[in-house]
Give the backbone structure.
Amino acid sequence: MKSIELKGIILAAVSGMAAVSLAFAAGEMIRPKATDASGAKERLTVPPAGTQAHRGYTLFLMNCAHCHGDDARGDEGPDLHDVRKSDARIASIVKNGIKGEMPKFGAKLADADVQALIAFLRSLKT
């Protein structure tokens, strides 16, 4: 009987270590990958509270980050740093989407929300 108990304890320990290893690996996969020129990880600068850009940041996290990444450096969607499109073009893309690539947010976001998102995008540093 002791042999069976020992095998159970060993199996439990190995399973626990495997679970912890998987958790660390998953955390590494979802962590932002952006780096600066020196190779150090970049952090997204959060716009000051009370500004239109901060409101846009909050909207971005709720509506856009799942595709563009929490740091807006891209994931499923493109990197949004240094966007060179006009504000009108960005507003059109947000409201109307891009067929097969990006959903429409025109029914979900008011014009003021879209302008706040644009303010946040303009605040992003390259």
User: Anything to note?
Assistant: The first helix runs from residue 2 to 30. The two ends are 64 Å apart (CA to CA).
